[in-house]
Design a protein that fits this description.
Helix content is 29%, strand content 23%. The chain contains eight helices and 14 strands. Bound molecules: iron/sulfur cluster.
C-alpha cells in the first residue's frame, strides 16, 4: 500500500492498483504514471480558447492533452480522454520534440505551451519536465486545471507556470461532493496561492438547476474579489454531455443575469461558450 499525496484525494493505493484518477498506479510500492509523456492531443490554439482573455490576447499557444482526471464530473465535457480513456489512442513525444515544435511555431504566433484538454494535475511529472524546459527556452506556460491539487506540489510547480485558468465548478461544497466528487476548499486554496504570484483567470460552467443561483454567484464573485478584483471570470454555457444528457443548455438570459451579479464585485466578467 502506498499513499499518493499529489491531490486532496490522498489515495491509498494497493500494489498493482490505480488511484481515483485512474492513471497513477502502485508498482512495487512506487507511484508510476501510466500517462507519462503519453498524449491524447496536440494543437495550436488561440489563447482565448483556453480561455485566457488577459494573457497575450490575439496570440496562439501550443496545447497538449493527455488522459485521466482526479474529479468525476457527471457533466464532463471531455469524458473520452478524462474518464473513459481505455480505448483512446495516445502518442509519445519527447520533451525535446515538444520544445522544438513550440519554437518552430513561434512564426505562427505561438507563445509557448498550454497543459489542457484533460486535467494536467494527473500528468504532473510530465508537466513539470516540459514546463522547466519551456522556461529554459523563453517560452510561456499555462495550466488549464480544476485546481484540485495539494499545496506542496502546487508550490513546486508554480515557478514554471506563467498563467492559470482554474475551473471553479460551483461555490458550494455540496456540489463538489455530490456532482464532481471532490471538495471546494482545496480549489479556493489553489486560487489564493496561484494568484499571489501568477496570472490567474477563472472559469465557471453554469448548469441549470445545479449552480445557477444568483446568490451563489454573488458569493463566488465576492470570494474572487477578496483575492483580487481584477481576476477575469468566464461564465460558461453548459451543453448536455456525459451523464447529464437530460438538462437543457443554459439559457443566455441566465448567463447575462449572472454576469451582472458577478460584475458587482469583479472588473472583468465574460460570458463564454455561446
Ligand atoms: S493524483 Fe490520482 S492517485 Fe494521486 S491522490 Fe489524486 S486521484 Fe489519487
Amino acid at each position: 500500500m502506498i499513499k499518493c499525496t499529489l491531490c486532496p484525494h490522498r489515495c491509498s493505493i494497493e500494489d498493482g492498483q490505480s488511484g481515483f484518477c485512474g492513471v497513477r498506479v502502485n508498482r512495487n510500492d512506487m507511484i508510476v504514471s501510466t500517462n507519462h509523456f503519453r498524449f491524447s492531443a496536440i494543437a495550436l490554439d488561440p489563447v482565448e480558447k483556453k480561455p485566457f482573455y488577459h494573457f497575450h490576447p490575439g496570440k496562439m499557444i501550443l496545447s497538449l492533452g493527455s488522459t485521466g482526471c482526479n474529479l468525476a464530473c457527471s457533466f464532463c465535457q471531455n469524458s473520452e480522454i478524462s474518464k473513459e480513456f481505455g480505448n483512446v489512442r495516445t502518442f509519445s513525444l519527447s520533451v525535446d520534440e515538444i520544445i522544438e515544435q513550440a519554437m518552430l511555431l513561434k512564426d505562427e504566433g505561438n507563445i509557448g505551451i498550454a497543459f489542457t484538454y484533460n486535467e494536467p494535475v494527473v500528468w504532473y511529472d510530465t508537466v513539470m519536465e516540459i514546463a522547466k524546459e519551456c522556461k529554459n527556452n523563453g517560452l510561456e506556460t499555462a495550466m488549464v486545471t480544476n485546481g484540485y491539487i495539494e499545496q506542496e506540489p502546487l508550490k513546486e510547480l508554480m515557478p514554471f507556470i506563467d498563467a492559470w485558468n482554474i475551473d471553479l465548478k460551483a461555490f458550494s461544497d455540496e456540489f463538489y461532493r455530490t456532482i464532481v466528487r471532490g471538495s471546494l476548499k482545496p480549489v479556493l486554496d489553489t486560487i489564493r496561492t496561484t494568484a499571489s504570484e501568477s496570472h490567474v483567470e477563472i472559469t465557471t460552467l453554469v448548469i441549470p438547476g445545479l449552480n445557477d443561483a444568483d446568490e451563489e454567484m454573488d458569493k463566488e464573485a465576492s470570494f474572487i474579489a477578496s483575492v483580487d478584483e481584477n481576476i477575469p471570470l468566464h461564465i460558461s454555457r453548459f451543453f448536455p454531455r456525459y451523464h447529464l444528457q437530460n438538462i437543457l443548455p443554459t439559457p443566455v438570459s441566465t448567463l447575462d443575469s449572472l454576469r451582472r451579479t458577478a460584475s458587482r464585485h469583479l472588473k472583468n466578467v465574460y460570458i463564454g461558450n455561446v
